[in-house]
Predict the structure.
Amino acid sequence: MKLLLSNDDGIFSLGIRSLANTLAAAGHDVSVVCPDQERSATGHGLTLHQPIRAEIVESIFHPAVKAWSCSGTPADCVKLALWALLDSKPDFVLSGINQGQNLGSDILYSGTVSAAMEGLLEGIPSIAFSLASYTLREFKPAAQYAKQLLDDLQNNPLPALMLLNVNIPPVNSEEIAGVALTRLGVRRYIDVFQKRVDPRGKTYYWLAGEVLEEVEQPHDLHLPAGIPTDVEKIRHNYITLTPLHYNLTDGPALQKLLTWQIPNLQS
């Protein structure tokens, strides 16, 4: 398959090398376009007020991989690849493997998920891969699962255009409990900003905070009953697969609002 890979950890991250090299060695046609430095938590930002530069990168990937570093955001990288760098449309856009989980409501900030979402916006099925640890640097189990998932999708294509958000637990392959289809959980943070004083006596704030692993949320009426959250299943060493799309319309709420008597604006 023809694959476009990106990430938000940067072109020199171990996660993207592990993913690209594993897939290239398996015979896939792999192109990589990544930020030239870390761009974590940039969401779906685009570069509009300055030029975007792309440079060919050699020697750090499998010889069959074509790679570029890009001065923009993760979404920029995918958009630039699809419209300027690649000679034809890929079969999949893959993002990752990210260093750290992308679970629950955190995906709204994630550059990893946003890179994959850009592929979906262009009508290409996309997958975001994340290793659920900020310290473990063993990406082989995650890369091997990515290869296996793509093999499965060749034989059993996705039933519809979608983004799969995949999180892999930070354990050895034999310790992975299985694969679970999940819904997004909700994560909240406490003590989000630390107030500090610089050497010149000026106050500044550092975004930090402690995550509350998951908070209760009402059951979503438009989802099947009994589907666990990604936050819950990753705790039990399951690989989590959560299908996502870009339409944020709240269907049940829209149905309720249709019953409102909304006055027309008067000129």
Summary: The chain has six helices and 13 strands. The radius of gyration is 20 Å. The CA atoms of residues 8 and 180 lie 25 Å apart. The domain at 2-184+220-247 is CATH 3.40.1210.10 (Stationary-phase Survival Protein Sure Homolog; Chain: A,).
